[in-house]
Sequence to fold (301 residues):
Amino acid sequence: MKLYLDPNGWVIHVLNFDPRQPSEEELDYLRTLPFTNVLVVMHDLPVLTAQEYQDFCRRVYVRVQNDNPTKDKRFLPGSNREVMRVTGRLDEEGEMIGLFGMPEFLPWHCNQPAMPLDQRPDCLTLYSVEGSAGSITAYSNSSRALRDLRQSQHAPPGLLENLDRIEVFYNYSVDLDRLSDSNQDYEGPSGKNTLVVKNKAGIPAILLSNLVTKSFWINDQELNEQIYKTWLDYLCKFLTQKKYVYAHRWRDNEMTFNCQVSGQHARLPFARIEQRLLWRVMGVVTPFDGALRTDFPLYNP
Ligand SMILES: [Fe+2]
Fold:
């Protein structure tokens, strides 16, 4: 395994890695780097079978936790509901066999933001099986954004003074096929988490899912609608500025590992979504003390 630092200073690129035969040292990197550096991208992997991908995820994570309470057909058959498909492909009955199969922009979000942090699947892996060329997933770094946010001169009144006291309430249902209101088929867990959190490496970040946020609270008091909307709008825009975003242009047989506490992801519009197939597994790792790792050579493909 060869590790490189992206010129942006935080994304880690991995070359020369075979997920079918990982060493303990390699697994340790993969259990920690998504949390110290938010995103790890593995390039030029061998073609993996579903079983090989699932076995690899089971070895990396302490616990695989792909617990979306949704239709069986969104999961890879035989995977014990541990591997989900992300695709616009339809089955013989015209039903979509994966998540988020619409060709339009899939807005910024992170998964399961309402779950208690110690129970939440805080790492997500995607593996590009086929048809992924031309598709782009964008990942944001809310740890880096938080550092700058505290110094912002343009924040709405009251936001920065209260940043560490804000709790976000999530209560949502979404249509996993097309994000419309017409056919909501997924009831997400509802609940509150603080806006400023620490991830598994102990690094402060902002946990926010632009797509499914419902209200802000301070000291068990719900903020009025106008303040909520003003603060949320500012945060959503601030956190997804280009300087905090890495846009991954997919090729087949690649894998991304991202921390779901320290950032969000979004998919750009992609017309050939029914041809694309990704496999997706979420999981948890043990907390550890860590800091951003920049001690790798620069990635220069
Ligand atoms: Fe997602």
Remarks:
- The radius of gyration is 19 Å.
- Helices lie at 24-36, 50-60, 142-149, 159-162, 225-239.
- The CA atoms of residues 27 and 60 lie 6 Å apart.
- The chain has one domain: 2-284.
